[in-house]
Amino acid sequence: MIAGGSFNGIVQYWDTRQPNRPAAHSLIEESHKDPVWSIKWLQSKSGELLSVSTDGNAFVWDCRLPEKPVEIHKIDEDSLQLQPKNNEGGAKGVLGGLCVDYDPQVGGPSRYMIGTEQGTILSCNRKGKTQAEKISSNTFNGHHGPVYSVQRNPVFSKYFLSVGDWTARLWFEDFKFMPMFSTFYHKAYLTCGVWHNVRPGVFFTTRMDGYMDIWDLMLRQTTPALSLQVSDYALHTAKPSPDGRLIAAGGIDGNVTLVELSPSLCTLATDEKNSIGTLFENESLRDKNLDRAVKEKRAGAKQRERRSTHLSEMTRAPMDEEEQLEAIAHKYVSTVQEEKTEGAKHRDNTEADRRKLLEDIEDGMEFREQ
């Protein structure tokens, strides 16, 4: 049985015994509303598969009931508890899925990862109790554009590789605030990134200019161990063979190029697993220590700010009392002055009335004498 996602959003199934036409397909009204960009078979007895699309949904299908999905997971801010808090530095709203990583031998039968169009990577668990726990127990933000590829390390499952914008980034699942390793910014856009199946410290990236970069972390971490032009057209995908001796690269021109690797790139070195494990552990520990130092610095700055605010309030309190006393004294003096002014004015008015009355009396007496 072969399953594939279509540009109109439906999921189709082919029987290899009758390959001329699809054996079944989903109903258009029950399917994705955007193109299906990635699809993975899940480990189950009934033949389940997972599909993601830029419409913001992740569907789980059962090939026995192909008409509609059996599980629907919405990748939006209403059902998704984004981490870090409020998804700082990440996208808001509906997150469109572009790629899926699922390997039951590496991450477990219930865990998968989704790379989104907005640059956020979701670590999901089907056994979560709530919708938020199912679709994203952790989120990782670091890419400036769509994430085209995400894959766990086949040996160290807590570390995974993501490709987006002009860089490839290596993440530690227990530390989601920043990648522990990032390549330099290439001139061409990166399109795919895959781990070597045998050597845990080797991974491959493809670019829009037709080049494939081979990174060997045992050799160096700053530049690729080898860069070769595979095609004159953009490369969009790559897949190594199980034994690690060959790698196939597909381009937009429809051609697949098979590259044979040298023994130094495909042969596991002595004690390489322990060395790469130590390298990953040291890098993740360094990032944790740096993050702890930053948090302690911020906490110390906040504590000093609170202390300075408290001291300033304590030193400002006597000045406030003096100002209040001065204001009361000024108000008292002003009130006394106003009362004095009003009293003097009242006396002047009374004296004027008395004089006028005396004048009127004198005028009346003179009138009688006449």
Automatic annotation (TrEMBL):
Residues 295-321, 337-370 are annotated as: Disordered. Its main location: cytoplasm. The keyword Repeat applies. This is Dynein intermediate chain 2, axonemal. Belongs to the dynein intermediate chain family. GO terms for cellular component: microtubule; outer dynein arm. It comes from the Eukaryota. It comes from Strigomonas culicis. One of its GO terms (biological process) is cilium movement. InterPro entries: Dynein_IC, WD40/YVTN_repeat-like_dom_sf, WD40_repeat_dom_sf, WD40_rpt.
